Structures are given as C-alpha cells and as structure tokens.
Amino acid sequence: MGQLITSENKDMMVSWMYTWSRQQEMSIHEQRIILRILEYCQDEVKGMKIKENMGIIDHHKHDVYIQMPASAAIFDSNLDFDTIKKTLEDLMGRYFEYKDKKRWWKCSFICNPEYEYGSGIMKFSVNNKLWDVWLNFSQGYREFELNKALALPTTYSLKFYMLVSGNSKPITFKTIDEFKQWLGIAPEQYKDKDGKDRIDNIEARVIKPAQKALNNSCPYTFTYSKIKANPDNKRSKVTGFTFTPKYQPKFRDEKLEAKKLQATVCASFSIRPEIYNYLRQQCGFSASDLNNTKDVWLQAQDVLDDPLGEIAILKAKAREA
Fold it and tell me: What processes in GO biological process is this protein linked to (predicted)?
C-alpha cells in the first residue's frame, strides 16, 4: 500500500501526544522527513493508492518500510549523496521516548536507512509503535498546512507552528527546563558562566526568530509573555513562558479553507450511521471532532472493505500506546 508524495498542499493532523513530546534537537532536513512520514500515515488511513511508484509503504510485523524521493524532504539545490547520507544517519540516531502510567519504551525515528546511488530514492523503516503514536489522536491533535510547515526555515519555527496551529488557547511552559526539553535544547545551552539561564539569548536565538518566520508566512503565529517568580517585581527571575496562538487569515490557503467550510456540513448526515455511532460511542469522538475529520472517515468508508473492523484495530492500538 502506498502513494505518491507530492507538493500538493493539504491540511495535516499531528497527534498532541507527538506535538507535546520531548525531543532531541534535529536539523530542518530531518524534521521535513518526519513531515513526509506524517503525510504517509494519514494518506494510508485515507486509503490513498500507489501512483507511479514514487512513494511506497509496506507494513511488516514490527515496522513500516518506506521509500520516498530525497528531494521531497531535503530541499537543497546541490542535493548530493553526502547530504542524504548525513540526514538519514542523523535521524537514525534520534529517538522517540514514550512513557505513561503503565509502560515506557524508546525507539529510533528511522532504522535501516538505504540509498542507491543516482536513484534519488531514500529507503528506511519506521517502528510500528511510533507509527501508531503518529496516528493516535485520542489525546487531541493539531491541524496545520503541510506546505507552510515544509517551507519553514528552522526546526524551532516548525515546532512552534505545529504547537499553535489550529489552536486558540495559551500554552504554558512552567519552567525553562521544560521549554528546553520540548525543543530538544541541551540543559546547559543558553546559560551564563554561573549556570543561570540567559533569557535574553533564548529570546534572541530561539523564540523571536521562530516568531518572525511564522509572522511572515503562516496562518498561525504567536505572541508570548514571560512568567516570573514574583509577577509584581519587574526584575524578578523569569521561570517560564506562555505562548498565545494568533490567527493570520491572509496566509490561509483559500482552497483548503473552502474545502474545510464545505466539510462543516454535519458529519452525521454524511458518515454511515453505524460508523458514526461507533466513533461517537466507542471511540469517544465528539460531533465537532467528527466534523473536523469527516474527510478521513468518508474516504475510509468508501475505500476499506471493513471500515468498522479497521477502526476497531486502530482503537485497540491507541489503547495500547
């Protein structure tokens, strides 16, 4: 099962479980590969077909095998083997860590990277557990425009965009350490010789450049405020940050917005009753959730032989994750 990875813009969903996770710092090339993998995940759920064999996914017992054009994620005018090799090796060295009340696990973002000289095609595998995290929306999700995310210049700006996109509520990091962990910044980075956090450096090198990138191109950006140990004292120590999403309609893709407005037709009238009721009663989706993701379920009921069975499998995996 697979599909062509194209530059077509689309609204993507990313699970809150992944968006909020603590990650190692990555290059923008690595982050773009992950964006393309997210695209694979959701197109697979929608039942997208292989087109011209440019992009392929194949499920095995423990992992998902993927092929994709290197140029789909590594935007480099001088794209060469060394750049591809370094990006794949670096991403293989990064890991995703999962922990809840019942269990802990950890895996590399990709394994078994491969590149055939002159082919332009990267090959690698993704652990099934991580694949399921990317498809697990039980704790909520963020929605963002794929092409806007791919075009962002830094990994920090991409992380911020995925955090605030489609959101209206402020997000608070109560400590500087929590903020650094979310972005993958080393604990000792942006500290002075006495070990105190340099808030001015964090603002100048991380927050403000990311904010500027979103201000200039994305439908969602943010404002922020500093949390102080003593709010009544302007010279009090800064202990955290609050980021407030800000919508910029001038950067919204008009075609995607029109499609989304069209999708506001109540899902209960378009999704088959047995599927709609199962999603509401057994999976805990609200009517609003189903309206927002209606296209996914419409494609599922049209393409899959047993959509209820497939949804039940996804539900079981979500419970295990």
Answer: DNA replication initiation
- Which pTM value belongs to this model? 0.77
Q: Do 18 and 109 belong to one domain? A: yes
Number of domains in the chain: 3
The C-alpha torsion from 43 through 47 and 53 to 59, rounded to 10°, is 80
Of 98, 93, 160, which Cα lies nearest the Cα of 133?
98
Q: Name the residue among 163, 121, 141 with its Cα closest to residue 41.
A: 141
Domain assignment of residue 87, given as a range: 1-151
> Which residue has 């057994």 as its token pair?
282
Q: Please tell me the distance from the alpha carbon of residue 262 to that of residue 24, in angstroms, as a whole number.
A: 39
Q: What is the pLDDT of residues 257-307, one digit of tens each?
A: 987 776 666 666 678 888 888 888 888 888 777 777 777 777 788 778 788
93: amino acid identity, one letter: G
| Closest among 229, 194, 226, 191 to 208, alpha carbons compared | 226
